[in-house]
Design goal:
Strand content: 15-25%
Structural class: alpha/beta
Oligomer: single chain
Number of strands: 16
Helix content: 40-55%
Strand order of the largest sheet: 4-5-2-1-7-8-9-10
Largest sheet: 8 strands, mixed
Distance between the termini: 13 Å
């Protein structure tokens, strides 16, 4: 089986943490079939002065873990005409896909994110007469409510040969908003965890390496420093938490992403709140280095606005951490209340503060938390995806 992966979210040498979860999944699928990736990079003349994401200029062709990745540039108008992004993505990628097909006669196109990626993939599939699968991820929470983008997104889902989703919530959301999906075309395949990359390390050693107090309570967040992830929501309740835990420290791991960059605002918030000495900004670090920060902490927290299936929850749990997060989207499918963490209502700072106090005070069964995370290794995800691809090709045949 030969599969063309099509996505705008795939790590490259200039954006090593972009779409790591896509690479984690598909690099394992590559153990069962031959894979090549087309990962277009947005381009607009002069837009590099506006947002960091437009300044990325990775090489057109690179290899990661033996997989060939092509990065054609696709035209995109920042902030305007977003309903045209899918068309521009299709047109900008067409020549690359035709050229690739001459030397790699792929059987199937596997797209990640429904719009613009999935929409463009459906058009590409029609151009080369190949079936298309689309994986729903967290962005559908926002995009499906836009008039034009929502319509194009649902158009693509209706024509996909198979729709995968990282959570059941996203399927239900699409159905509730008018997507034409039947259960025989839908498959929920949650993300997994790299059990070699994320495992328990000695807490004291990690704290010494990170210059953290050896006995103080430590909470940690990992994710892009954007409004959605909610680092500022933790910092806003930190002064109250310090009344109960005066030596508490908060590790913030992450940097700016394609959604924005709140680093400056977060640092200002820490200064205004008088908590600078208790907040540690690690910045954007390589995915392989995250484990050390997780293992140095006692509790993981991410009061996010929305997610599809936050992979970092499993990664934190694989390091023995209970997770405190919001009861939104698919979070309750990942975090099992009372067993692997606590869930709170979004936008309720008092509930968030109380949950963090409970999590810090509770004697968690960390071995049980690790075992729960390890129930879902990426190898299992890869087998499920490969079997689903085989089913699509069999039905088409």
């Amino acid at each position: 089986m030969k599969v063309l992966v099509f996505t705008t979210a795939y790590p490259n040498e200039q954006q090593p943490n972009l779409g790591v979860f896509v690479r984690e999944r598909m690099s394992r699928v590559a153990e069962y079939c031959e894979i090549k990736v087309v990962a277009p990079v947005p381009f607009f003349p002069g837009a590099g002065f506006l947002k960091k994401k437009y300044r990325a200029r990775p090489p057109y062709r690179e290899f990661q873990e033996g997989i060939e990745i092509l990065h054609p540039r696709f035209f995109l108008i920042p902030r305007f005409c977003k309903g045209l992004d899918g068309v521009f993505l299709f047109l900008s990628s067409l020549w690359t896909v035709f050229g690739l097909r001459r030397r790699f006669d792929f059987d199937l196109i596997d797209a990640h994110f429904a719009y613009p990626d999935g929409f463009a993939a459906i058009l590409l599939g029609r151009a080369v007469r190949r079936p298309v699968t689309i994986t729903l991820r967290g962005t559908i929470n926002r995009l499906i409510h836009y008039p034009v983008r929502g319509m194009l997104l649902k158009w693509a889902l209706k024509r996909a040969d198979r729709v995968f989703s990282v959570s059941r919530y996203l399927i239900d959301l699409a159905l509730e908003n008018g997507a034409d999906l039947t259960e025989d075309r839908v498959r929920v395949i949650p993300n997994g965890v790299d059990t070699e990359k994320f495992s328990l390390l000695d807490k004291i050693s990690c704290r010494k390496d990170l210059d953290l107090p050896l006995e103080a309570p430590v909470i940690v967040s990992v994710g892009g420093l954007v409004e959605r992830k909610g680092h500022h929501r933790v910092m806003e309740i930190l002064p109250a938490l310090l009344e109960a835990y005066p030596d508490l420290h908060y590790l913030v791991v992450g940097g700016g992403s394609v959604e924005g960059d709140m680093t400056g605002q977060l640092r200002e918030l820490a200064a205004r709140s008088g908590i600078t000495d208790h907040v540690h900004f690690a910045g954007e670090i390589d995915h392989s280095e995250v484990k050390k920060y997780l293992c140095a902490a006692d509790v993981f927290v991410l009061p996010t606005r929305f997610e599809g299936w936050a992979n970092v929850f499993f990664e934190a749990m694989a390091c023995g951490l209970p997770v405190v997060t919001t009861r939104v989207c698919g979070n309750a499918e990942v975090v099992k209340e009372g067993r692997s963490g606590l869930l709170v209502s979004f936008g309720d700072p008092d509930a968030l503060q109380l949950a963090l106090r409970k999590a810090l005070a509770h004697d968690w069964d960390r071995e049980s938390i690790i075992s729960y995370a390890y129930e879902r290794p990426w190898s299992q995800v890869a087998r499920e995806v490969h079997q689903a691809f085989a089913d699509v090709l069999q039905n088409r045949g």
